[in-house]
Amino acid sequence: MKILIFYVLVLTLLYSVRNSHGARILASIFSPSYSHQVTFRPLWKELAKRGHEIILLTTDPMEDPELTNVKEIDLKESYAVMDQYGASELVSNQQGKSYRELFSAYIFALSRTADWQLSHPEVQQLIRNTSEHFDLLMVEMMFPTHLAFVDRFSVPFIGLCSLDAVPRVHKSIGNFMHPIIYPDYLFPFTKNLTFVQRVISFIVTAILDIHSYFMYSTEDETVTKHFGSNIRPLKEIEKDTSMLFINVNPIFHQLRPMGPNTIQIGGGTHLRQAQPLPQDIEEFLDTAKTGVIYFSLGTNVKASLISDELRNVILNTFANLPYKILWKFEQDLPGTPDNVKIMKWVPQQDLLQHPNVVLFITQCGLQSMEESIFNHVPMVGMPFYGDQSRNAKIMEENGLGLVVDRKNLIKDDFYRAIMEVINKPIYREKVEEIAILTNDVEMTGLEKAVWWTEYTIRTRGAKHLRNPMVDLPFYKVYLLDVLGFLLSIVLISLYVVRKIVKILLKVLCSKTHEKKKIE
């Protein structure tokens, strides 16, 4: 009896020690885009504070000495690889290029970047370390290549999206899809689609499905090159998603039915209170008697690469405005108007919290819009690529600002849009209203992300939340076999009825003919 009690005490002690040390997490944010990286930084910090050990593959290392249990593999050269294939030029200056050309070229650049990342010496060391183990993988879902780590370490995984998930990702976890009700976020329309828009959405969605098939095939070859042949096809691995964290806010985004393992963390996981501004920016803002307009196209769209025509329209418009303008621009820009200040880097969150900022002219990246809403600053949108047109449309529909078409922009239209948003209080009031609704929640996006991450670890993959639709072939999901069966019954019934009618008519005609003969 004493021996039994001793063993129970030892096992209890070992279990307690094991759980007090937290989990080992491998995290990978593939995208060479600061906005994609910054969305999840608070999550890594919070998980680290709670005792979890994290190895993070990132293009933008935090380099925080206080995070002693976070090891970062620095993949910042991914930006150079993307530019080697013209990514910045593609998204910044799209003159003379069709959407198909832009999309294909950008996907190719992403594919080459994924290949480079997996060939990185530290990543290869991680792949080849046979003694390495993890309790959880957290991986960005925008591009599938890094999903190979799931099979390499035989580990459950959480998919991460710094914006809404693309259709193939929603589909992989069993969320309801419909090209008309929920068009791809690449489209600039959201609801109440016209007939032409419905046709376009249906056709393009079908084309994207076909494109995904070839993309998986290409990335499977990349995986075999770096991991060997023991990795399942990426499309198959994708179906094993335990949880999906999407940067979606139901107040701002379109409502849609989703399974319990899709967690909406939108609203701004990265948002924080203001820090002191650099002195030169502080003075520029404080001395602006009529206010300051902040203009930024984000990190991926380079203002220095936009067309000369568009740049001239912007500068000519700014010269006629009664406001100071702070423009985030990657290099010196000679000949700027006296009221325009050019800066290569701006602490955007801190700047937007200054009371003298009256307008944010933005490319409508989701993180920038979250920061603008959080700080009650109305917007003028100038979308370039990706989800930006959709975000701009949502922003305008919610009354948070106006959108201008950069492809056909003229000075008068740009001027009118700016002056209207600044001078009509309704725009700022709507931004404040959305901000209040966004913050009135039972848990913040970060709190939900932390809780569900630890839940996935505790339950070893939360397999009980798996949507059965994931395992069904498409013909069963859309009842094609049932509809085919019912249609067959109808057709067979019609055929039988037709035959019976023909026989009856033949018999009737025969009797009528005999009767006439007798007469």
TrEMBL record:
Catalyzed chemical reaction(s): glucuronate acceptor + UDP-alpha-D-glucuronate = acceptor beta-D-glucuronoside + UDP + H(+)
Signal peptide: 1-22
Ranges that cross the membrane: 477-497
Enzyme Commission number(s): 2.4.1.17
InterPro entries the record matches: UDP-glycosyltransferase, UDP_glucos_trans, UDP_glycos_trans_CS
Source species: Exocentrus adspersus
Name of the protein this chain belongs to: UDP-glucuronosyltransferase
Major location category of this protein: membrane
